[in-house]
Design a protein that fits this description.
Largest sheet: 5 strands, parallel
Distance between the termini: 12 Å
Bound molecules: adenosine monophosphate
Radius of gyration: 17 Å
Strand order of the largest sheet: 2-3-1-4-8
Number of strands: 8
Shape: globular
Number of helices: 9
Order of helices and strands: EHEHHHEHEHEEEHHEH
Strand content: 5-15%
């Protein structure tokens, strides 16, 4: 089963994708994570996209489509979760063609709905474990007092360079201008499902589970 998690930054796509990996053996394909990895490993591409990402702009379609294309030839597990991809109509078309070429299909596009005020609050309070990716929030889920990640025990909490109000404003603009048209695109294809992304992580996971059982 291949699915897209669609939604603005901070909607909870990464958190839900990680659960699906654990519970259904699916493979998370997060272009944001791939680009961040390219940055830290100092590749030529990583250097080229760093400033673009920090501003909150989108990197070129060509780069992210190339990253996804590479992964589609790798292990498939219980299917792919596309997290943060596609973000433009050109990427959506490319994904359709790539899946076709691999004899695969898209089973569902899950739009995670959250309002802007919640996004700002979530993102500016967000930190993650640098080792396992567990997500914390200064207000609703603070980092443990003993300084160790509840999941893996590492003591390496990080905040993303683009998780500040200024970059977030730009990321939201990019979402509304370039990514939100995908809602209509997939609705017209009959693939779109909507879940309320504002609830507790478990409730959102249950709503996504229900969609996947259908
Ligand atoms: P994310 O982790 O999904 O919030 O992505 C972080 C940043 O990486 C975005 O603000 C973009 O600069 C870049 N990025 C991630 N995925 C894409 C994509 N599919 N298309 C273009 N840029 C992307």
């Amino acid at each position: 089963m291949n699915i897209i998690l669609l939604g603005p930054p901070g909607a909870g796509k990464g958190t839900q994708a990680r659960r699906l990996v654990e519970e259904r053996d699916m493979i998370q394909l997060s272009t944001g994570d791939m680009l961040r990895e390219a940055r830290t490993s100092g590749t030529e591409m990583g250097k080229r996209v760093a400033a673009v990402m920090d501003r909150g702009d989108l990197v070129t379609d060509e780069i992210v489509i190339g990253l996804i294309e590479e992964k589609l030839s790798g292990p498939q597990g219980g299917g792919f979760i596309f997290d943060g991809f596609p973000r433009t109509l050109a990427q959506a078309d490319a994904l359709g063609e790539l899946l076709d070429r691999h004899g695969s299909t898209l089973d569902a596009v899950i739009e995670m709905q959250v309002d802007d005020a919640a996004l700002v609050a979530r993102i500016t309070a967000r930190s993650t474990c640098g080792n396992c990716g567990e997500v914390y929030n200064d207000i609703t889920r603070p980092q443990p007092a003993d300084g160790k990640c509840v999941k893996c025990g590492a003591s390496d909490f990080r905040r993303r360079a683009d998780d500040n109000e200024e970059s977030l404003k730009q990321r939201l603009m990019e979402y509304y201008k370039k990514t939100s048209p995908l809602i209509g695109y997939y609705y017209a294809k009959g693939d779109l499902e909507r879940v309320d992304g504002l609830g507790e992580v478990d409730d959102v996971a249950a709503a996504i589970g229900k969609v996947l059982e259908q």
